Amino acid sequence: MSRFSGGLHLKKRRHTALFTFEIIAFAYFVTLAALAPLAAAPGRRVRVCAAALGAAAIVLGAARVLGADVRVWLAHVYLIVGYWLPAQLVTRPPGGFEAWLRRAESFGSFGRFGTFGSFGSFGWVRDVFELAYLCCYPVVPAAFLAVYLNGSIGDVNRFWTAVLAAGYVCYFSLPWLVSRPPRLLEQAIVHDSRVRRLNLRVLDRFSHGWNTFPSGHVAVACAAALSVMAVTAVLGIAFLIVALGIAIGSVTGRYHYVIDAAMAALVGTGAWALAGTLVPG
Question: Where are the chain's structural domains?
Answer without folding.
Answer: 7-278
